[in-house]
Amino acid sequence: MKWIVMVVCLCFLSSSLLSQDTLYIKGGEKLPVSTLKLKNGQYRFTYNSGTQKGAVIESLVDSFFQLQPAKKSKKQQDVFEQAASSNTAKNWNVNVYLSLGLGNNLSINDPSGLPDKSSLSGDVALDVNANYQPANKRFSASNELHYLLSVQKQSLTRSAHLQIAQDNINTLHDIAWRTGKSSSWNINSVIRISSPLITQFDGNYFSNHTGLGRISGLASPYEITVAPGIKYQPNQAFRFSVPPYTFRVIGVTMTDVLAKGLYITDIDALGNYKTFVFQRLGAEINLWFDQQIKEWLSMQYRISISGNYFEQIAKNGMLDGLLITRFRLIKDLYLTHRLSIQNAFSNAFFKPFLNQNILLSYSKSL
Q1: Cα–Cα distance measured from residue 150 to residue 206, given in angstroms and rounded to the nearest whole number
Q2: Quick one: which of 36, 186, 209, 217 could link to 176 by a disulfide (CB 3.0–4.6 Å)?
Q3: Quick one: 335 exposed, middle or buried, by C-beta within 10 A (0-12, 13-18, 19+)?
Q4: CA separation for the pair 221, 263 (Å, rounded)
């Protein structure tokens, strides 16, 4: 009788263990799960024989492995099969955010005696995140594109022309190779590219109202910064990179914009402005912070501090940052707060230029 009881217990124990399924999380972690549900972009599961519950964001799942199918309902089995098929083959995670904002400033009966004034402004932003993180591989690449176009009209009269307040397209690339499959240390290279997108004329107009021609346009100017170094990433939320040496290329492709000497003042042997200049820079610190709190709040913060060398950073250092905070209103619709930071330490050690935009955003995952 004892042997029969032992055999039954052993069969039950082995059946429980074999029915455990495994979620592979980016970064090398493994989660044994008993049940699995996909809801609002999260895989929700139980573990420890169903006594505890957990959840993980869908985009953080690398792959799924089902050791032995347990008895599940058809709906639950469909979720397991979806996790197994989609996440195993899906090495790319792409998210697109399109944001719009509209503002009006109305001034009537100013006590100082100034005439009544009404101005109009609008913002359009595009944010794209395309991350390549194959399952159980050392190589990874995170790619971001951030574009912001801000326009304004000083008054609603016909004589006031529409002006460009901001027109910036920036890309950020982090190409990394982990030193070990479960290691937090990486050898990486950070690449940043920036340029205007729309042709802009003197006076920040869309057309040549002043007759003085163009002052900027696509790739006029452009800036490319390359920073190879070492990155530490203890978890999915935080990354820290230190390149000991960086270099930058600044160029202008439009000849009429180049001839104005607005962005490059170096002269070649013929007395013309150079089409590009190469700059050797020093050390740099890059910080990434990505965090999602439940389903209603997400943070995407990027900060870069650079200088010729650390001992001179107070004299020639630069601070650049982009902080994006999104508050979920309803499905795929967010209230987005964008804050860009720029500070040249040579002008003031900490007196940054801040630019803030509050926008309504629509999100789509591809």
Answers
A1: 12
A2: 186
A3: middle
A4: 7
pLDDT digits (tens, 9 = 90+) for 48-81: 666 667 776 665 665 554 444 444 555 555 555 5
Tokens describing residue 81: 């099969």
The length of the chain in residues reads 366
As separate numbers, helices (DSSP H) first and strands (DSSP E) second, the chain gives 4, 22
Question: Between 339 and 348, whose confidence is greater?
Answer: 339
Least Cα distance to 49 among 26, 78, 22, 17 occurs for 17
pLDDT in tens, 202-223: 999 999 999 999 999 999 999 9
Q: What is the pLDDT of residues 109-161, one digit of tens each?
A: 666 666 766 778 999 999 999 999 887 789 999 999 999 999 999 887 888 89
Which alpha helices (DSSP H) does 226-292 contain, by range? 255-258
Specify the DSSP class assigned to residue 310: G
Model-level pTM? 0.75
CA distance 143 to 191: 9
pLDDT digits (tens, 9 = 90+) for 274-291: 999 999 888 999 999 999
| 144 exposure class (CB count in 10 Å sphere: 0-12, 13-18, 19+) | buried
Structure tokens at 336: 């987005």
Q: How many CA atoms lie within 13 A of 187 on its CB side?
A: 3
Which of 147, 111, 142, 116 is CA-nearest to residue 129?
A: 142
Work out whether strand 117-132 and strand 139-153 pair parallel, antiparallel, or are unpaired: antiparallel
How far, in Å, CA of 146 to CA of 4, rounded?
A: 66
Instruction: Tell me the average pLDDT of the chain.
Output: 82
pLDDT at 294: 84
Q: Are 34 and 23 in contact (CB under 8 A)?
A: no
Cα separation, 84 vs 163, whole angstroms: 51
Helix (H, G, I), strand (E, B) or coil at 21: strand
